[in-house]
Amino acid sequence: MNRRETGAQGEKIAVNYLKRKGYRIRERNFRCREGEIDIVAEKGGFLVFVEVRTKRDTSFGTPEESITASKKDKLIALAQTYIESHAGLPSSWRIDVVAIELGKKGTVSRLRLIKNAIN
Questions:
Q1: Those residues with Cβ within 8 angstroms of residue 42's Cβ, 6 or more apart along the chain or in another chain
Q2: Residue 91 DSSP code
Q3: Is 68 helix (H, G, I), strand (E, B) or coil?
Q4: Which residue of 40, 53, 82, 84 has the fewest CB atoms within a 10 Å radius of its CB?
Q5: Cα–Cα distance between 44 and 80 in angstroms, integer?
Q6: Which residues span the domain enclosing 58?
Q7: CA 41 to CA 72: how far, in whole Å?
Q8: Does residue 52 lie within any of the structural domains?
Q9: Distance between CA atoms of 57 and 46, rounded to whole angstroms?
């Protein structure tokens, strides 16, 4: 399985998990000039931008550790672009991270939701 397939599998797992946790998915893979937001959702009156990080091998760190300072800045810019280009959104927003580790057979060995991970 290549990196793109791993990412797509992780996003699918994350969407199903978030739905079970009461998130309402508004959009997936929102693309703009600045980049891409994996999942845009709503939960508890918040607009929630979700970054999904999926890894099969943690020898170079966990999925959470792969979010650099520049990636955080990019996610904030992406969220602001989304807000500016859409009407009727909740006034409060946050960025959550779903970190997923997959085992050898592609099964989830660890899933962690980090609310308000980037501020």
A1: 23, 24, 26, 48, 90
A2: S
A3: coil
A4: 84
A5: 20
A6: 3-114
A7: 18
A8: yes
A9: 33
Q: Please tell me the total number of residues recorded for the chain in this structure.
A: 119
Tell me if 119 is assigned to some domain.
Answer: no
In a domain, 7, yes or no: yes
Residue type, position 111, single letter: L
Nearest to 16 by CA among 117, 98, 93, 95: 98
Looking at residue 77, which CATH number applies to its domain?
Answer: 3.40.1350.10
Q: How many Å apart are CA 81 and CA 24, to the nearest integer?
A: 20
Using a pLDDT cut of 90, give the percent of the chain over it. Answer: 83
Q: What is the pTM of this model?
A: 0.94
Asked if residues 118 and 95 have their Cβ atoms less than 8 Å apart, the reply is yes
**pLDDT tens track for 55-96:** 998 888 999 999 999 999 999 999 999 999 999 999 999 999
**Pairing of the two strands 46-55 and 92-102:** parallel
The total number of structural domains in the chain stands at 1
